User: Fold this.
Amino acid sequence: MNKVTLYGFLGRDFELSKTNSGKTVAKNSLAITKRWINSNNNKEEHTDWIPITLFDKSAENANTFFKKGDRFLCEGEINTYTYTDDETNEKKYGFSVIVRNFHFTKSKDESTNNNVKEIQTDLKESELPNNEELNQASKQSLEAVF
Assistant:
């Protein structure tokens, strides 16, 4: 089973593009911070940046309703890919979470639209990207957001 649930803060506004077949792709990164107290009783923290990718109507809706710094709760699956580094010509590996569903975590008063419950937040079976579209979306932007 390949399933992941993530809750974090968006690192930037969504970056939109299209696949060759016309599917909308929205990319971003989620900042997920872990905080703890070390053995010297000092506070420490570490932030992981998790790349996320959305497709079609859910990509368009996430782009419309979410901006940099917003809380974002999503479910999806991990997609791995390979690419060749342009400078070193070495084979590299990457990953992204393909978001199958996302949830609004803002209160109704914070929402930018009263019709939030009526929009599509899940990836429909007919919108699932094929392997070619996944590979194309992965190669469109390999930059990490920090």
The CA atoms of residues 36 and 42 lie 8 Å apart.
